[in-house]
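Notebook entry, structure prediction.
Reason for the run: the old model in the group folder had no record of what sequence produced it. Starting over properly, with the input documented here first.
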Amino acid sequence: MKVVFLLMPRLHLLDLSGPAQVFSTADDLGCPYQLHYVAEQEDVVTAQGVRLRAETVWPVTGPDDLVVVPGWRSPMLKGGPRPSRETLGRLVAHHAGGGTVASVCSGADLLGQAGLLDGRRSTTHHELQDELAERYPRTRVERDVVYVVDGRVVTSAGIASGIDLALHLVAGQHGPAAAARVARSMVVYARRSGEESQDSAMLRHRWHLRDAVHRAQDRIDASFAEPLRLAELARGCGVSERTLTRQFVESTGLTPLRYQQTLRLERAEHMIGHGATVDAAARAVGFADARMLRRLRSRAA
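New structure, fully documented this time:
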């Protein structure tokens, strides 16, 4: 998957480096990404004074690829960068061809200039939301959210929210366990948008920084349908069974077994929602029969 960053003058370094680090780390962990940096001129001066060198020729992109527009320093959107028709046309053509476009902070203004926000929900930095709504009245600006996904147009609030946006996209492409591994490697919280509930237990219970518990979760995530042997799990994490259980509960509110059951239940519900019988779903997620699954479903109801 290609990730193409479109760089504008006076861009914020973290708007760029946050998402770039997510995709780069994902690539290091076996989720393949190719990162490209394009601009209308080779030298791009950032808001923090660092000069970046970009390509002026765009790579060929397809439906599986992503174009990201980092934001720039500006007290207002008015007076910000005004890219050429060719650049805006690139954004439009990529989206029309089935690709995804995303923005961080004021980068939403470029998507607005390209007409990609029309008829869609969007967001940006809280200091720019009113102006975004005024400049592009055909978009519905969502407030107090980290990012908004509307089809293949993704906008985020500002600065560090680009990390959350990128983690969400990695989760969509490679699964929540992969996104959680990336977040752990970067020592950041794996989190989702403030506009929606955490729809994956693999991400929902990662709001902690305990390494042993993260390692235990990684192992359970990868094989939650297999029998859970606490002694082996603790040994693999380098702690005692008692210590692992205590830290796991303190970090997630669940025992390792209950966490495994939560993953099994979540997967089973997904399968049942797509036409599987309760018996078939129970077997697929590791239950010996459907009785335990039925009990867990009744508790969650």
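Summary: The mean pLDDT is 92.
The old model has been moved to the deprecated folder.
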